[in-house]
Design a protein that fits this description.
six-stranded mixed beta sheet; alpha/beta; D-Maltodextrin-Binding Protein, domain 2
């Protein structure tokens, strides 16, 4: 499964944004009127999104605020299931020419899989395209053409940490792995679990590997391309193998919480919020549940990038937001209206509308957009990485379609002491090989 989709779905559900496998349903955006009510020149755009509560709430808020600015255009929101069922609906409706006027979908490799050149309207010539963050723009680009507007904010694969504990022990945010491990030694001596792991939910075990990709690309800038072409591997790349080595090192030194094998994400968040665990390598999107359950964590929990070997190259691995797209079946007046809607989504007003709809869990992918004043410290800590050139890199899955399905089982084994790092990295290369061959990639 695509990691960003899997983790977004999981964290969204845990944040009381329940995802249910419903058939396609439709609901109007707020109290918007129909095209008939708006007069003969009115246009109605149908907007397809997944059926998570927060996604729907955001879509309706965008529709309401867009129509207030463009009274002749009504946005009607339709929902689809999440996951593979939703993927199939997207692909089927695109192939049959039955897609809604605009729709929300993944960026990166899953975006490439829906044949954007054939099925989507390019929007790179629209003024808003110039305001898109580069780390987002590259994930909605195919054959040199930009196709989408960002929906939501970036996620970071990082380490959440307890700020009061850091202050009590006089610790500084580490920029190298050696500094991080020195902090862990002091934390363990103080009787606190240095690194929280929650292998009861296996997907959470992957972050020391996946979140380390900024460090991999800093050391080997062409790793993603070579990896896709079967010219670079985790087992033979010293930089890529470090994520597995870090997992092993944390376990071997006894830095994990005692119940790491059975603990689940809510358990990890509790340890972190209460200061019984110092660090939690995880995706930043969990801040929604964290703050909802432990309000004080909005100020007490911060974020820093997974450290590498070189402090000068310290930076954050990020997951791109979803994209809003226009299918080629949208034509005429609806096409003009759809382009206006995407321009609104990718504007400061659109960011404000999304913030109004719910808690902001990451920096926006539009250069003109600023975070609201009241956001969790985790989100504030992400922004400097986004703003500083070279201080953030896309996760590997946005640069390559190759991701083996068994990574989370392998990282659990390495992090539990069942398998050594080198063996885990090599095993993952075999897992990747199977998937790459299924995709029919050259060189495999």
């Amino acid at each position: 499964m695509n990691t960003s989709r899997m983790i977004r779905s999981r964290t969204t559900a845990l944040a009381t944004l329940a995802i249910t496998a419903l058939a396609l349903t439709a609901c109007s955006a707020g109290s918007l009127g129909s095209s008939e009510e708006g007069g003969s020149d009115a246009v109605t755009l149908n907007f397809l999104v997944d059926n998570a509560d927060q996604t729907l709430k955001t879509a309706e808020q965008l529709g309401k605020d867009f129509t207030a600015k463009n009274p002749g255009i009504t946005i009607k929101v339709e929902t689809r299931p999440a996951g593979s069922e939703g993927d199939n609906i997207i692909k089927t409706r695109l192939s049959t020419g039955d897609m809604t006027d605009v729709f929300l979908y993944n960026t990166g490799s899953l975006f490439q899989a829906i044949a954007p050149k054939k099925n989507l309207v390019p929007v790179g010539d629209q003024p808003f395209a110039g305001a898109l963050a580069d780390n987002f723009k590259s994930t909605v680009t195919a054959d040199g053409q930009v196709y989408g507007a960002p929906y939501g904010g970036f996620m970071g694969g990082a380490i959440l940490y307890n700020k009061p504990l850091y202050a009590k022990l006089g610790l500084q945010v580490p920029k190298t792995w050696a500094e991080f491990m020195a902090n862990n030694a002091k934390i363990k001596a103080a009787g606190v679990a240095p690194v929280i792991q929650t292998y009861g939910e296996t997907w959470t075990s992957q972050l020391f590997v996946l979140g380390d990709f900024h460090n991999v690309s800093a050391a080997e800038p062409d790793f993603a391309d070579k990896y896709t072409q079967n010219q670079a591997k985790y087992g033979t790349s010293p930089a890529a193998r470090k994520g597995f080595e870090h997992l092993q090192q944390v376990h071997d030194l006894g830095y994990e919480n005692k119940d790491f094998a059975s603990a689940k994400m809510p358990d990890g968040l509790k340890l972190l919020a209460q200061g019984k665990g110092a660090h939690y390598p995880i995706l930043s999107a969990v801040v929604s549940e964290l703050v909802a359950t432990y309000p004080a964590a909005a100020k007490d929990v911060g974020l820093f990038a997974i450290p590498g070997d070189d402090a000068a190259k310290n930076g954050l691995t990020v997951w791109s937001p979803g994209g809003v797209y226009i299918p080629t079946s949208t034509t005429g007046a609806k096409l003009d209206a759809a382009k206006k809607f995407l321009a609104f989504v990718a504007s400061k007003e659109g960011c404000d509308s999304q913030a109004k709809a719910g808690a902001v869990t990451g920096p926006f992918a539009v250069k003109d957009c600023k975070l609201p004043t009241e956001v969790p410290q985790v989100v504030k800590d992400m922004q400097p990485y986004i703003d500083t050139e070279g201080a953030s890199s896309l996760a590997l899955e946005f640069l390559s379609p190759v991701k083996g399905p068994s990574l989370e089982q392998i990282t659990v084994e390495v992090g539990s002491g069942i398998r050594k790092a080198a063996a885990g990295a090599s095993l993952y290369d075999e897992d990747v090989k199977k998937q790459a061959q299924q995709l029919g990639l050259a060189g495999w």
